[in-house]
Amino acid sequence: MITVFKNGRILDPSQDLDIIGSIILEDGQVTEIGEDVEIGEYDELYDCSGLWITPGLVDLHTHLREPGEERRETIKTGTQAAAAGGFTTICCMPNTSPALDNPAIVDFILDKAASPEAGGIFVQPIGALTKGQLGLELADIAALRQAGVAAVSDEGCPIQDASVMMRAMEFCLQLDLPIMVHCEDVSLTVDGCMNDGPTSAMLGLNGIPRSAEEIMIMRNCVLALNTGCRVHFMRVSTWGGVEMIRQFKYLGAPITCEVSPPHLTLTDEAIGEFNPIYKTTPPLRSEVDIDILMQALADGTIDAIASDHSPYAPFEVEVPFEEAPMGMSTLESTLGVILTHVTHKGILTPLETIHRLSTGPAQILGLEAGTLIPGKTPVAQMTIIDPNLEWTFDAQRTFSQGKNSPFHGWSLTGKAMVTYCGNEVYRDPMLSSERYELALA
Ligand SMILES: [Zn+2]
Predict the structure, then answer these.
(1) Which residues does the annotation mark as catalytic?
(2) What is the mean pLDDT of residues 236-262?
(3) Which residues, in sequence order, are CB contacts of 259 under 8 Å at separation 6+?
(4) How far is the CA of 372 from the centre of ligand 1 (A)?
(5) Distance 180 CA to ligand 1 centre (A)
(6) Which residues lie below 8 Å from residue 434, measured CB to CB, with a gap of 6+?
(7) For residue 440, is pLDDT > 60?
(8) Is residue 348's pLDDT more than 90?
(9) What tens digit of pLDDT does each residue of 282-291 get?
(10) How far is the CA of 182 from the centre of ligand 1 (A)?
(11) Domains and CATH numbers, the chain
């Protein structure tokens, strides 16, 4: 089976490629890529004029909720949502029920993700750092690594005790396994439900100070520098936190970080009349934070954009603000929001955009993804994007069970039209035949 994609704008940051050219896939694997590829016999030919052809997007930070919280999402619906969002590899977080702290759960997730009913993309489990994510005793990280986790994390339940974290880093350094950290000093966030500032004062809600995040970023930067363990900071939200990461990178700490779309586009003022859809962790901050996050994204201090897809069941979010859970459903809006509010505004070039959404995240965890170089991935992972398609995001019409999106009703420009992971796993109904002609041999 030979499939040819021609006349597309090929954006592959792994080979610093930004050309108009063709890609040939043979039996689900890239065999040729370039400006002057000779097209011989083929079974299918697609004309990608006006479209981008990129490595499949890679998400470092997804909550698939299974096992244990299937009312919110399942591996099936979460991977389908990922494919529709242009992702071919996603990393799922360990705060499931039970926590992802033993090899049996890794196997369970990999089996479910590979089943024919699932979305057809790769799921990379992230193991729990401590047993039951209780922050006290390290999980059997060596066994988790053996079972196939790409990193370990305390996501959701950050380790408070510095000595436990230091031991974790010393141990993970020996295993050459990165730690992904959610930074929060919980002694400063008790009862807090939104950013501490003028808006929280006006609404009379308990605030979460930026210090809660920044103190933990500082501690983890210091520990990473001194232990040598690779540490990845998940969805940073404050300008102070980003500046610390910038400084510790300069000092040689082996650290990376990500930002999520809500923290680049929304401030705490969006909460308005106590709308729980805008409740997340870390909380939405201010315009100044957005400005610095955008700058850091552009200069490479921020290595990756991650969805932090956190779906909830409707009954869980239709409650008063203070009782609502923290998190937003984002897999199917991430690319559109970033193209509209970052790329089309000139903050990132198209190639840099794909770097932050694909090659960068793959490199952080050493995943076989984020590249179109022949033979570098087990099967071809590719996303075809219409950068200029104007559409309205409708959270009610998503594959994800989580309809808790702050981007519902937003007008966006740019969308994943076809997602390819060994074979075609998603094709958008809005893809017009004039833009993407199929010619059968
Ligand atoms: Zn998360």
Answers:
(1) 308
(2) 98
(3) 235, 236, 237, 293, 296, 297, 302, 304, 305, 306
(4) 28
(5) 11
(6) none
(7) no
(8) yes
(9) 999 999 999 9
(10) 8
(11) 2-53+381-388+410-440 (2.30.40.10), 55-365 (3.20.20.140)
